[in-house]
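JOB MANIFEST
job_type = single_chain_structure
chain_count = 1
residues = 191
[input]
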Amino acid sequence: MINHFNKIKKIYDFYIQNIKTMTEKTALYIKQRHTNFVFLLPILRYIHSKPNTILIIFSVLSFVFSSYVLGLIFFFLLFDSFILSLLVLHGINIKNNSRKISKNVLSLFVLYFNQLGPIITLIIVTLLYSNVSRFISKLIIKLFESITMFVFSFVPFITLMYPDTKEIRNEKPMDSTSFTTEKNQSTNSNS
C-alpha cells in the first residue's frame, strides 16, 4: 500500500531544504557583492533557523489571500502549458508532456471558473498538479469525466460538435505515443 504521509513528508522536507539553501545562497551573495543589504542577514539567519515558521506563515497567507494566489497559479499554469505545448509540437517526450499539459488544462479550467471557492479550488489544483497521490489525481479526473458526460447527456448539440466524447468513458485510456507513431507510419506508407 502506498504511504501517502511519507510522500507528503518528502514534499515538505523538499520545501524546507529549498528554503534553507536559498537563504544560505542569498546571505552569501549579500556578504560578497551587496554590503549595503547587510541589515537583511539577521532576517535570513532567522528564516534559515526556523523554516517551518516561514512555511506555515506562507501557507496561512496563501489561504487568506487565496484569490490572489489562484491568479498567480493561473498565470504559472498558463505559461507552463505554453512551454509544454511547444515541446509536444516539436515531438519532445510526447507522452509525459501531453499528460502534464492535460493536467494543466484541467487545472486552468477549474481555476478560471472557480465555482467551488478559492480555498477548495486551490486544494484541488494543488492535488492535481503536484502528483502527491495517483489515486487522488485519478479521482479528480474521474470526477471531471463524470461531470462532462452528465453535461453532454443534457446538451445534445455538444455531442454533435464532439462526436469522440463517447471515448471519454473508455476505462483504458489510449497511449498517446503509440497513436502518434501508428499515425505517422500510416501517413508514411501512403506517401
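[summary]
The first helix runs from residue 4 to 33.
The radius of gyration is 22 Å.
exit_status = 0
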